[in-house]
Design goal:
The structure is a homodimer.
Chain A: H1 3-12, H2 16-28, E1 33-34, H3 35-42, H4 46-58, E2 62-67, E3 70-75, H5 77-88, H6 100-103
Helix pairs in contact in A: 2-4, 3-4
Chain B binds a DNA duplex through helix 3 and helix 4.
DNA sequence: TCCATATTTCCATAAATATAAAATTATACT
DNA sequence: AGTATAATTTTATATTTATGGAAATATGGA
């Protein structure tokens, strides 16, 4: 992942409405939600939400598909994962003893 | 973590210079780097970099300490971790069967 | 075809953010 | 005290981004 891609993704998340959209879609799961449901749920006018959804899609964080008259948006889990990985890549020059306790999750 | 905190953190990362700073500090490890070294390494004037460093610190992504005349900045691994966790909290309403393959990392 | 619904594009305005020069503060050394 | 170094604050300007009304596009049903 290029730094400009990561930057665009973080930029997409740097706005309350858009962050709320992603959280909503992460909660909703792969089934996703229609654009109208999203703008309704978050109380934003349709044009405003359309602008934000396009931004999130351009950033590779959500996906869209058409179903009848609706456009269904869903979280792009792969994209989110790539972004997280980018942030911690090459951590401590590869020496995980330095930061491991802070960064590595216990596994179940 | 409040959504406004997460938003502020993503906002801090939504800018190439600042994202480069965090990557640089993540690579540098807990020892960190002096403000002057950072602005030198990234080719930005001191006031500009000072503005960006303050932004990253305010967002809880880096820490600073004074050493003589220098101010040493280092990645705040706990803060980064909290941010990542926020993004995927309550994923698929807790049913990891839906998105697990995309989100959960294999453990070594 | 005509109408209602769903969403987007266009556009103008408002608001937030980045940049860097100049001035300021703080520390160390002689 | 005097001087050099390190970093920050102040300030003004330039740039980017968000917002939502009005108009346009696309689909499905009567």
């Amino acid at each position: 992942m290029e730094i400009s891609d990561a930057c665009q993704a973080f930029s997409a998340l740097s706005q309350t409405s858009r962050l709320e959209v992603l959280k909503l879609l992460v909660r909703a799961g792969p089934a996703g939600l229609a654009a109208g449901k999203i703008s309704g749920a978050l109380g934003a006018p349709a044009p405003t939400m359309s602008f934000h959804l396009k931004e999130l899609e351009r950033a590779g964080l959500i996906l869209s598909r058409k179903e009848g008259r609706s456009v269904i948006y869903a979280a792009d889990y792969g994209g989110v994962r790539d972004l997280v990985d980018f942030l911690l890549a090459d951590c401590c020059q590869g020496d995980k003893r330095l930061c491991g306790p802070y960064v590595i999750k216990e596994c179940a």
